[in-house]
Every structure is written in C-alpha cells, then in structure tokens.
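Database export, one record per block. Field names are fixed; values are copied verbatim from the stored entry.
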Amino acid sequence: MPNPIQLTEKYERNGWPSMPRPDLKPPAGWNLEALTALKRVRNHQLAPDGRHIAFFWDSDDLSDLYIMPSEGGWPGRLSTDRGPTLSWNDEIPQWSPDSQSIAYTAHGHVYLVQAQGGLPKKLLPHVDSTWGPRWMPDSQHLIISLERDNADQLALTNLSGTELRFLTSGDEGDHWDARPAPDGKAVAFVFRRYDDLNRTDICVLNLETGALHTVYGKPKIRAWSPRWSPNGEWLAFLSQEDGHDDLWMAHPDGSGLRQVTRLGLDVVEFQWAPNGKSIAATLNRGGSFELALITPKTGHADILRDLPGLHTNPHWSPGGAFLTFEFESATQVPDLYRIHIATGEVTQLTFSTPPWLQAVQPVAPEAVSYPSFDGLEIPAFLYRPPKPNGAAIVSVHGGPSSQEALFWNELTQYLVAKGYTILAPNYRGSTGYGVEFEHRNYGDWGGGDTQDCLYAAEYLKTLPGLDPSRFAIMGGSYGGYMVNCCLARDPEYRYACGISKYGDADLVNSWALCSRELRYYTEIFLGHPAKNRQVYLNGSPIHEAEKVQKPLLLLHGLKDDIVPPEASEQWAEALRRHGKTFEYKTYASEPHGFIRRAALLDAYRRIEQFLDWYLLP
C-alpha cells in the first residue's frame, strides 16, 4: 500500500463506552482469572515403540513440547521457548521410526530433539521457513515442507541439514502432507492445483526413479489424508466424491480404486491398525466425534466410544492392543486417554481439570435446529443456563468451512453460568452435514449465511423466558464477519449489540492484504476478484455501515495473518464516519485468535462488560 495504515495497540471508541456493572458479580465458583489460567494438552503422538507420548501443552503463554510414559506419569519438558500457538493451526510432533527423536515446528522452522534429553536443534537454519516434517523409515532422513516457486514444495533432507533434495517443483500448485511408503521407496502427498482450487489430488512420487503419478484426482473434488497400509499395498484417503468425507482406497499405482465407507457421516481422521485388518477413525455425528473401528474390506464401522464430545487424533500401539486418543466435550477440558481394544477399558492419562472447575457444573448443550428464511433447517447447539437472566447470545463459529461442535469453550460456559442463553448455529457453509450443505454459501458470502444467523434470533424468540430486545450476536473470524453483516443488513435490528473478534468487512481489501494461502482460500468460495468483483462487493458490509444502528465491540490482534488487522481498522473508520457507536481494541502481539493470557483476560473482561451493559436491565 502506498500509504499503509499505521497499526499500533490501542483502545478507542465512538459514543459512550460500556461501563463496569458494580451491581453484578461473577457467577458463584467462577472468575475470569481462573478461566484464563486453564492449561490445554493436545496434538499428541504415540511413539512407534509404544512406550512414550509426545504432545504440546499450552501453559504460561507457551505451547511447548512434552513427553510422558504411555502408561501415564509425570511429563517431561523437551522445549522451553516454543511460543503460544493456536491449537487448530498447529502440527502434531513427529516421532522418528526408531522412537529416539522428535521433529516439530517452532518459530517457523523444523526442530529436532532427542527424546532422552538435550537441547532442540534447528534443522535447516539457512532456509527462510520450513514446516510439516515427516520421517523416512531409516530415521536418518526427513521430508519437510517449504515455499519455492510461489508454491508449497516438498524436500528431502538428512539429520544434519547438509543435504537438501527437492522432491517437487513448479508453480502449478501446492504439495502437502507427505507420507513416505513403509519401504521408503515412494512418498504419497496431496496436490492442490491452482487451476482448480476446489480440487485436491492424491499423488505418489517414486523416490528412486522420480516418476510421479496421480492415484486419485477428479475435477472439483477434494481428496486428502493419504495413509499407507502397513504392508504398502494400499493407500487409504478421504474424498468428498460421494457427498460426504468418506474413506477410499486404491493401490499405489491407482488401480483397485474403491469407496470404503458409506455411513452418511464424515470421517474426520483415521489410522491403519498395525496388522492392516482394521482402521481406527473418528466419525462426525452432528458435531460429536465418535471413536470407531472400520473394516477396510466391508466399510463396516464398530463404535468404540460415543460419549458426546470430540474424540480426536487416534494412534495405535505397535501390537494393536490399544489406542491413544484425545477427548474433550462441552463440559470437559481436553485430556489424553488410552483404550484397550479387546476390553474397551479406558484409562485417563492426563488430568487437566483444576479443583475449582470440578466444583462447578458446566452445562451440556442440546442439539436443536430451526428453519431459515428459505426453509433450510439450520443445526445448532442450545445452552440453557440454570438461572436464566432473560438475555441471549448467538455465538457464530469461524471458517466458514468449519463447524460448531461439542468442544470445550470456557467463555461460553462462563457466560452461561452468568445466566445468558447461548445458541451456536451451524449456518449454511458449515462442515459436518455433507458436501451439499457445505457448498451452500459458495458465491454468496454475507447472503444466505447472514440470514441463517438472523433467523437464529427468530428461533430464540420462540423460547420461554427470553426478552427479544436483549439478544446479542458474537463471533470470531468468519463469525466476526457474520456479526458485521448482521448488524449492517437487518432492517428489523434483531440484535441489541454485536461483538466482532478479528472479523472482516471489506472482502476486496482483505483479499489483497492477506497471505497467498488465504487468498486462495477465499477464491475457493468466491472466485478471483478480478473476475467476480461484484460478488466480493455484495459480500462486504463496509458499504452499508450507515445502516448499523446497534453498538459494536471490535477486537483484533495486530499479528493476525489470516484476517488482516486493517480489516477492523477500516470497519472502525467507516463506523466512525457515520457516527455509529462502537468500541475498538487491538492487541499488539496477538495472532488470529487471542492466545496470551493477558490478552485473553482483557478481551474476556471487555466482552463481559459490553454484554452486561447492553443486555442486562
């Protein structure tokens, strides 16, 4: 930009600010200080020998690497300076096949550390940025990802980083998720083509001859997660060809292609059993991820565990006797577990719930649905507080290619404990309900999905004990964009206020300012702005700022590389120009989603204060 917007941490307002409510107290047993002190265990991997688990632990403004016995026990810390990293945007640490070393990404580079101790070592310090490490079977080489030719490429390197052999090249597309064959002679990966952004292929590269071929690739069909069978005879992967995220299989040469699952549910993750006779998978049933065993020959799924919540990241023990996995729910913070396959016995390995949280009673939501403006049923989760205060909040997830699911959300639980009823919709474009539903907002950002969020208020009006004049809408990322759209595009003014966390308002400018990957992400839904400029303009509420009639709270991190912070800066300027009431707070060191405790605490306090000020009589 010739005259770039100056971005510094600040708080500003237009109109009278929300004020603390000295007549209100935190709900019994809760406070924001305790809430922001919660630690999160996540992204684990079981060592190939089955003896230890590596995982990341979000604690004290760091997301460091830890190791612990797979039987349970005290964790040991392997890194000490890995900055706080958002869980949904992080990788899984990778064990070497000999279980001696772990590769992980930190500070934009791949690091190696010995499991028995020693300081981590940067693998390729002379390269600008590396990520996505995958070990070769010999434990002496890794495949890493890096950018070259304006695309994500794969390269092979040794442990000292003195060798670097590019496996892919060219600017035709991105190369992702490298998976070496069990014999080390080939590597499977995902190829995202730039000439069809709605297509991703499964490819195999012969490392000895350099021959490259496509195992699976079809126009406008996404396929991902290639996984070799233990004997290397098959490649399993996920594809959306049949309308859901189904499990498919083919031989590495592309022959024998067949669809494995037809469950009417999305397969989220999967891992081959060591004997190749079954596949552990997680299945998405309306926002609850069940743990299951799939028989490759028949596609039959036996449910191992179906507690309401999210079972994620399953890993087999070397003999196949047990699985390790992660579990969280709307009422339970994430922890690590193991399940014995023969008996179904489950053992909890980590214990992240502090005593104060054990003493209160988080609320489990109800699965509901409501009709939108065109009759489309919108799935949602409804949180009913034990002591309602008559006010309600519509909480909108980001993405839009994402889903409101039964995960732990501490702010939701805190607000419910205060008496707020919360409705969390899965508007059109959300994942988890089939490809047709997921594609319903293609070419229509800010249109039908905005109406889905507005009709959430209509549903709330049907619930007893709620005052329709005291509804708010709140969301982050695409959810923040939905907030901006709803307040600018609702002549009925259904919401008394809105909270937009790192949300967008001008799709054209944000496309121009964001990273290459995010530009392509936007183009998947809307096409290129040079060809579909009107679609971008139609989706930009910044052109309708004069229609906003209710107060807005804007929160944005200045290190955001997904929705550029200029987005909120421009939206605040438009609101100011039209004399609208808003508050605007930025955080100098925060990325796309607040992660440091001080920023979280400040944001939560502002959100609570804003809601109490405008919704409670």
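Remark 1: The chain is about 15% helix and 35% strand.
Remark 2: Residues 597-615 form the longest helix (19 residues).
End of record.
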